Give the backbone structure.
Amino acid sequence: MKKVVLCPNASRDVNFETSREVGRLLGGSGIQSVLCPLPDFDDGRGTGSGGYAELVARLADADVIIAFGGDGTILRTARAAAGYGVPVLGVNLGGKGFMAEIERGGIGVIPGALAGGFGAESRMMLDVELRRGEKVMCEDFALNDVVIGGMTKVVDITLYGDGNVISELSGDGAVIATPTGSTAYSLSAGGPIVEPSARNILITPVCAHMLKARPFVLASERLVSARLGKVRQNPAYMSVDGCDYVELRAGDIINVRESKKKALFARLSGSSFYRKVSEKLGEPM
C-alpha cells in the first residue's frame, strides 16, 4: 500500500483528534498516511482551490481516502475522488452516517483491514445538465441527488423518461436521486430505500398538491428530464448534491442521465445494507 489520505471535517473532528489517531495507528502498521483536511465550503467537484485542490493532487499516489465526518463530509470527499479510481472509507463522526463504513469506536480495525486488503463497492452517479432554450447554462454530476423546488411557493414540474411524460406535478418540488441518495432527501420525501450498489434513477415528488403524484424507480439507462412550468412570482432553484442553488426560470429543462463517473467506497466488513438501515433508522435487528 502506497499511501492513505486522511480527510477530516474540522468541525466534526475537533483538532483532528480522530484522524491523527488513525494516522498513528497506520504508522504503527507501516502504512504511510497524509493529513488533508476538507475545506468548510466548496462545490465538491475537485476543481476549487485550497483544500480540494490539495486533495485532488494527492489522489495520484493514494490507495484509499479516509473521510472523517458525517454523510455530507463523505459525500464531498467522494465527489472529489470520482473518476480517479480511489475508494473512500467513511468514518462516521456525524448523525445517521449512511455512507460511513465504520463508527468512531471501530477505528482500531482500519490498519489491519487495509494491510490485509479490502473490498471496493462501485456506486453510480448522475450527469446533470441545465438547458435554457438552446443554451446549456451549467453542467454538474451527482452522487446523491438533484433537487428542484421553489423557494417559498409551489412550482409546476413536468417529468419525462426518454421523452415520455412520467408525471405532471405541482408542489414543493421533486428529487431525482441515485440509489446512494435514496436514504437522503428522497427518503424524507417518501421515496423508497434502494440498495446503494443498484443502478436505478429515482424520482420522488416533494409535498405534491395532488393525490396521483407517486415516486418512480427507473432503469439507469433512462434519460430523465424535468421541465419547469410557470414560476409563481418566486424564485425556483436546482441544487446538485446540496451544493450552491442555481436559479431556474419557466421553461428551463434539467436533463439527468447515468454518468460514466463512478464513486468507489471501501468495504471492510460483511455487514449488510439492510442491517445498517435498520440501525440508522432506530430499528435494530
Summary: The radius of gyration is 20 Å. The chain is about 15% helix and 40% strand. The first strand starts at residue 4 and ends at 8. The helical segments are 17-28, 51-58, 71-81, 110-115, 185-188, 273-280.
